[in-house]
Design a protein that fits this description.
By secondary structure, the chain is an alpha+beta fold. It has 5 helices and 8 strands. GO terms for molecular function: acyltransferase activity, transferring groups other than amino-acyl groups.
Protein backbone atom coordinates (compact mmCIF):
# COMPACT_ATOMS: atom_id res chain seq x y z
CA UNK A 1 0.00 0.00 0.00
CA UNK A 2 1.09 3.55 -0.43
CA UNK A 3 2.04 5.56 2.65
CA UNK A 4 -0.69 7.89 3.83
CA UNK A 5 0.02 10.93 5.98
CA UNK A 6 -2.46 12.78 8.15
CA UNK A 7 -1.73 15.78 10.37
CA UNK A 8 -0.18 13.64 13.11
CA UNK A 9 -0.01 10.11 11.75
CA UNK A 10 1.59 7.91 9.15
CA UNK A 11 -0.28 4.90 7.76
CA UNK A 12 2.06 2.37 6.17
CA UNK A 13 2.97 -1.29 5.88
CA UNK A 14 4.42 -2.94 8.97
CA UNK A 15 8.21 -2.89 9.52
CA UNK A 16 10.42 -5.18 11.58
CA UNK A 17 11.09 -2.26 13.95
CA UNK A 18 7.40 -2.35 14.96
CA UNK A 19 7.76 -5.61 16.91
CA UNK A 20 8.14 -4.12 20.40
CA UNK A 21 5.20 -1.80 19.88
CA UNK A 22 3.01 -4.60 18.52
CA UNK A 23 3.83 -6.77 21.52
CA UNK A 24 2.81 -3.92 23.82
CA UNK A 25 -0.82 -3.93 22.70
CA UNK A 26 -1.30 -7.53 21.56
CA UNK A 27 0.09 -9.11 24.75
CA UNK A 28 -3.11 -8.15 26.59
CA UNK A 29 -5.98 -7.55 24.16
CA UNK A 30 -8.69 -5.39 25.73
CA UNK A 31 -11.43 -6.52 23.36
CA UNK A 32 -12.35 -10.22 23.12
CA UNK A 33 -12.27 -10.28 19.33
CA UNK A 34 -8.49 -9.78 19.50
CA UNK A 35 -7.87 -12.68 21.88
CA UNK A 36 -6.91 -14.96 18.99
CA UNK A 37 -4.30 -12.34 17.99
CA UNK A 38 -2.68 -12.45 21.44
CA UNK A 39 1.09 -12.71 21.40
CA UNK A 40 3.26 -13.33 24.43
CA UNK A 41 6.87 -12.92 23.35
CA UNK A 42 9.00 -10.66 21.22
CA UNK A 43 9.59 -13.65 18.94
CA UNK A 44 5.81 -13.96 18.45
CA UNK A 45 5.68 -10.24 17.61
CA UNK A 46 8.52 -10.58 15.09
CA UNK A 47 6.76 -13.51 13.41
CA UNK A 48 3.48 -11.59 13.28
CA UNK A 49 5.25 -8.57 11.78
CA UNK A 50 6.88 -10.79 9.13
CA UNK A 51 3.42 -11.92 7.99
CA UNK A 52 1.91 -8.44 8.10
CA UNK A 53 4.81 -6.83 6.21
CA UNK A 54 3.70 -8.74 3.11
CA UNK A 55 -0.03 -8.16 3.59
CA UNK A 56 -1.48 -4.81 2.48
CA UNK A 57 -4.72 -5.58 4.33
CA UNK A 58 -2.95 -4.83 7.66
CA UNK A 59 -1.95 -1.19 7.98
CA UNK A 60 0.33 0.16 10.70
CA UNK A 61 -0.76 3.41 12.35
CA UNK A 62 2.30 5.34 13.52
CA UNK A 63 3.00 8.69 15.12
CA UNK A 64 4.47 10.93 12.45
CA UNK A 65 6.94 12.52 14.91
CA UNK A 66 8.91 9.32 15.63
CA UNK A 67 7.33 6.58 13.44
CA UNK A 68 6.31 4.57 16.53
CA UNK A 69 3.46 2.10 16.08
CA UNK A 70 0.32 2.94 18.07
CA UNK A 71 -2.22 0.67 16.40
CA UNK A 72 -3.44 -0.99 13.26
CA UNK A 73 -6.19 -0.90 10.70
CA UNK A 74 -7.26 -3.90 8.66
CA UNK A 75 -9.70 -4.97 6.00
CA UNK A 76 -11.04 -8.07 4.32
CA UNK A 77 -12.34 -7.68 0.77
CA UNK A 78 -15.55 -9.44 -0.20
CA UNK A 79 -16.07 -9.51 -3.95
CA UNK A 80 -16.81 -7.49 -5.79
CA UNK A 81 -16.52 -4.24 -3.81
CA UNK A 82 -17.44 -4.67 -0.13
CA UNK A 83 -14.89 -4.50 2.67
CA UNK A 84 -15.09 -5.63 6.28
CA UNK A 85 -12.97 -3.21 8.33
CA UNK A 86 -11.52 -3.01 11.82
CA UNK A 87 -8.94 -1.40 14.05
CA UNK A 88 -6.96 -2.06 17.17
CA UNK A 89 -5.05 0.57 19.16
CA UNK A 90 -2.68 0.67 22.09
CA UNK A 91 -4.66 1.86 25.13
CA UNK A 92 -1.91 4.37 25.98
CA UNK A 93 -2.98 6.48 23.04
CA UNK A 94 -6.74 6.57 23.65
CA UNK A 95 -8.51 9.87 23.95
CA UNK A 96 -6.26 11.81 21.56
CA UNK A 97 -8.32 11.38 18.39
CA UNK A 98 -5.77 9.12 16.69
CA UNK A 99 -8.31 6.42 15.86
CA UNK A 100 -10.68 8.95 14.29
CA UNK A 101 -7.88 10.62 12.32
CA UNK A 102 -6.44 7.36 11.01
CA UNK A 103 -9.75 5.68 10.20
CA UNK A 104 -10.90 8.72 8.20
CA UNK A 105 -7.77 8.44 6.05
CA UNK A 106 -8.25 4.66 5.86
CA UNK A 107 -11.84 4.99 4.65
CA UNK A 108 -10.83 7.54 2.03
CA UNK A 109 -8.09 5.15 0.85
CA UNK A 110 -10.53 2.22 0.62
CA UNK A 111 -13.18 4.22 -1.24
CA UNK A 112 -10.93 6.17 -3.61
CA UNK A 113 -7.86 3.98 -4.16
CA UNK A 114 -9.34 0.49 -3.81
CA UNK A 115 -12.77 1.25 -5.24
CA UNK A 116 -14.80 0.10 -2.26
CA UNK A 117 -18.53 0.60 -2.60
CA UNK A 118 -19.47 -0.50 0.91
CA UNK A 119 -17.62 -0.81 4.23
CA UNK A 120 -18.91 -2.53 7.33
CA UNK A 121 -17.59 -3.19 10.82
CA UNK A 122 -18.62 -5.54 13.60
CA UNK A 123 -18.39 -4.05 17.09
CA UNK A 124 -19.13 -5.85 20.36
CA UNK A 125 -21.88 -4.26 22.43
CA UNK A 126 -19.38 -3.65 25.25
CA UNK A 127 -16.88 -1.81 23.03
CA UNK A 128 -18.28 1.70 23.52
CA UNK A 129 -15.25 3.51 22.07
CA UNK A 130 -15.53 1.72 18.73
CA UNK A 131 -19.29 2.25 18.65
CA UNK A 132 -18.79 6.00 19.12
CA UNK A 133 -16.04 6.02 16.50
CA UNK A 134 -18.33 4.35 13.96
CA UNK A 135 -21.01 6.95 14.68
CA UNK A 136 -18.54 9.87 14.38
CA UNK A 137 -17.46 8.49 11.01
CA UNK A 138 -21.04 8.57 9.75
CA UNK A 139 -21.56 4.82 9.80
CA UNK A 140 -25.09 3.67 10.49
CA UNK A 141 -25.98 0.80 12.75
CA UNK A 142 -27.56 -1.83 10.52
CA UNK A 143 -27.87 -4.74 12.84
CA UNK A 144 -27.61 -6.10 16.33
CA UNK A 145 -26.75 -9.77 16.62
CA UNK A 146 -27.53 -11.54 19.89
CA UNK A 147 -24.92 -14.13 20.92
CA UNK A 148 -23.30 -13.69 17.51
CA UNK A 149 -19.82 -15.11 18.00
CA UNK A 150 -17.56 -16.51 20.72
CA UNK A 151 -13.93 -15.56 21.28
CA UNK A 152 -13.56 -16.86 24.82
CA UNK A 153 -15.11 -19.24 27.34
CA UNK A 154 -16.88 -19.01 30.66
CA UNK A 155 -15.14 -20.55 33.70
CA UNK A 156 -17.04 -23.81 33.12
CA UNK A 157 -15.57 -24.10 29.59
CA UNK A 158 -18.72 -23.22 27.69
CA UNK A 159 -18.46 -20.56 24.95
CA UNK A 160 -19.12 -16.96 25.96
CA UNK A 161 -21.05 -15.44 23.07
CA UNK A 162 -20.75 -11.75 22.21
CA UNK A 163 -23.65 -9.49 21.30
CA UNK A 164 -22.46 -7.55 18.27
CA UNK A 165 -23.49 -4.45 16.33
CA UNK A 166 -22.92 -4.10 12.61
CA UNK A 167 -22.17 -0.62 11.27
CA UNK A 168 -21.92 0.23 7.57
CA UNK A 169 -21.17 3.06 5.18
CA UNK A 170 -21.48 3.45 1.41
CA UNK A 171 -18.97 5.22 -0.80
CA UNK A 172 -21.58 7.71 -2.02
CA UNK A 173 -22.33 8.64 1.62
CA UNK A 174 -18.65 9.07 2.49
CA UNK A 175 -17.78 11.14 -0.55
CA UNK A 176 -20.64 13.57 0.21
CA UNK A 177 -19.04 14.56 3.52
Amino acid sequence: MRKIETNRLLLRNFHKADSDYLLEYLANPRVNCFLEERICTLEDAINTIEKRKKDDSFIAVCLKEDNSLIGELFYLKEDPDTYSVGWNFNAKYEGHGYANESVKAFFTYLFTDLGARRLYAYVEDTNYRSQKLCERLGMRQEGYFIEFISFTEHEDGTPKYENTFQYALLSKEWLKT
